[in-house]
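Hi V.,

Quick status before I head out on leave. The structure for the redesign project is tokenized and pasted below; the design run finished overnight.
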């Protein structure tokens, strides 16, 4: 890849929220509406882009040039060698974006939740910046899945002097045990494949009854498990978030 000189377009990394199109910000909607080229990530070659579906429901994509690119769903550990298939996905997406930018087109990259929280968008941005360090880019934050989950169960993520930990899908049991023991509240993201092991650990620490599991939060087929043991043998969706909160809010004496 190479970046030519001259007028280039601007890249917009647009957080489209956790699933409900109405949870997109006004700025996200306006940016997508005003940008003709959309590059949307998807996990499978023959699958659909969840971010694109959300954006299209609110903005409409009939008059857009929509380019879907595959980002393989594999664990990524920073400061370690990345899977070749994953790197190829980033590089292919970067070439597609770069071609449009060099033509003077602005490009919007809709991404689930918030771009700054475990988002595919920063892998794309980092790959592009290896070619062009001064790439014109604007990042538009979005509502996170954990914020939407908090709202659905009418409970805070953090309050007062709470220490909140956010744990991605690629967690290991030793670190998770320490986090659960030392934090006041914990968010486990994309817990779908690890739930039985997580339940066993929560049982051991006496925290199972302080956990709630939300599957496809904010979507039409949302499911909330207040007893997370009920979900142990189910095939959960990728969008599954577990909230653990140790402290209760003390009532003010009257």
């Amino acid at each position: 890849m190479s970046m030519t000189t001259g007028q280039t377009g601007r890249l917009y990394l647009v957080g489209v929220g956790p699933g409900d199109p109405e949870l997109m910000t006004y700025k996200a909607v306006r940016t997508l509406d005003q940008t003709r080229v959309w590059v949307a990530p998807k996990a499978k070659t023959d699958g659909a882009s969840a971010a694109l579906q959300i954006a299209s429901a609110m903005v409409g994509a009939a008059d857009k040039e929509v380019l879907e690119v595959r980002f393989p769903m594999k664990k990524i550990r920073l400061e370690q060698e990345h899977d070749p298939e994953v790197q190829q996905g980033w590089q292919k997406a970067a070439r597609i974006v770069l071609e449009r930018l060099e033509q003077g087109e602005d490009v919007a990259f809709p991404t689930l939740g918030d771009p700054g929280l475990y988002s595919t968008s920063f892998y794309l941005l980092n790959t592009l910046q290896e070619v062009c360090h001064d790439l014109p880019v604007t990042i538009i934050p979005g509502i996170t899945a954990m914020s939407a989950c908090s709202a659905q169960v009418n409970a805070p993520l953090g309050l007062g002097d709470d220490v909140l930990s956010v744990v991605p899908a690629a967690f290991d049991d030793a670190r998770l045990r320490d986090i659960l023991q030392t934090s006041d509240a914990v968010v486990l993201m994309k817990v779908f494949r690890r739930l039985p092991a997580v339940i066993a650990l929560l049982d051991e620490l006496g925290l199972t009854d302080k956990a709630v599991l939300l599957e496809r939060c904010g979507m039409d087929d949302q499911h909330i498990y207040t007893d997370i043991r009920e979900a142990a043998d189910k095939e959960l969706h990728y969008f599954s978030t577990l909230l653990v909160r140790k402290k209760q809010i003390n009532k003010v004496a009257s």
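Above is the designed sequence. The CA atoms of residues 21 and 101 lie 27 Å apart.

G. will cover questions while I'm gone.

Best,
W.
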